[in-house]
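Progress report, Aim 2. The chain analyzed during this reporting quarter is listed below.
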Amino acid sequence: MGVSLKDVAQRAGVSIKTVSNVVNNYQHVTPQMRAKVQQAIDELGYRPNLTARHLRKGRTGIIALAVPEFGNPYFAELAGAVVDAAARHDYTVLVDHTAGLREKELLVSQGFRSHVIDGLILSPIHLETEDLMARTETAPLVLLGEREYEAPYDHIAIDNVAAARTAVRHLIDRGHRRIAFLGSRTGRERQPAHLRLRGWREELTAAGVTPEEALVVVTDGYGREDGAAAMAALLDRGEQPDAVFAYNDLIAIGAMRTLTERGLRVPGDVAVIGFDDIEECRYGATTLTTIAPDKQAIARLAVDILVERLSGSAMPEPRRPRPGYRLIVRESTAIRPPAA
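Predicted structure tokens for the chain:
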């Protein structure tokens, strides 16, 4: 038979209500009383019945995280951070995969599995503002990712333009001027690829360097093979840059593979910088310089805001926090040797 609140109360010499207040982390408990109850909890090995607690509040205790790509390490790392953040609120996370398909994003956002989950954290690729405005599902929704929306939902995204400018500034400071951008996309101007491309243009212009549109390469996807193909296409048309700013780390890693196969040195002939700081950046033959979004902060903000919405806290306006990022310098952009 399991340990009950009554057992803890008897061990601590307090009321059941006091134990309940400590377990539910209510604020109006003195530090001394909280410590006394916690000691009894630890001694008896008490574990709260989270399922019963959520059911009493009319909830399931489950939130969903929907991401576009399981195969992209960035989303795997982000999912792990969300699971950790949710555990601090006693929530379980159901991870869903949209494969970056609009119909699946619509299905998830419009309430698919709404009988199972209390709220949704969604990282969409193809949803538009109109889709979100037409949403009738009442479960709280928090958006992740760098697409911009004019919809009444909480949205967490880093400043892509500023982050891209930081990457390009780093390359300029290393003496590079012919800086390629790999990973451009056609379509809406508010997609993250366009925002990072805008940062590329702005920083080059600010440094007095004319952006060379011939060095911008559109990719079909965001994987290693896309980066390898983009780099090959650039070299095949005789456009060898002295540096590459890639939309993400996977494209950058693919580009480095092509450069190596073509007999070019990284960073001796071409420096490369990526975006996301996935684990693979730290363990390649040439470690990759990258822009590192604060994935822990993104996950924590998403879960905290969702839990606040579920608690009914007064939050009339959608929140749009901007988590931080940092430049991590590794071997792929080491200082170039002086010209002979």
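The CA atoms of residues 287 and 331 lie 5 Å apart. The chain has a mean pLDDT of 86. These observations will guide the mutagenesis work planned for the next reporting period.
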